[in-house]
Amino acid sequence: MRFAVPHDHPCLAGHFPGCPLVPGVVVLERVLEAIEAECGRVGALCLPQVKFLRPLLPGQEAEVVLAGTAPRWRFEVRGAVGPLARGEIRIGGHD
């Protein structure tokens, strides 16, 4: 799933003045949207591992790439310069 966060998105106000960066929680929200597009509503999730490697800037395009199936996925968020974030996400309560 490809996405970009527009320059006027409310999450950018104050994050950070003069040098806006897309908050990590917004990036993870797009990962959840990609999972739900594939599987439907999944409920509570657990993030046992997440690493943010590079910042995502407003207006930059990124892509969520998923590997695996319910109840556990590995994900990578890729930008033009390479990986921005990667980790594991699983449906809560599953080991």
TrEMBL record:
This is ApeI dehydratase-like domain-containing protein. Signal peptide: none annotated. It holds the Pfam family ApeI-like. Gene3D superfamilies: Hotdog Thioesterase. It comes from Pseudoxanthomonas broegbernensis. InterPro entries: ApeI-like (IPR054545), HotDog_dom_sf (IPR029069). Residues 2-78 form the ApeI dehydratase-like domain. It comes from the Bacteria.
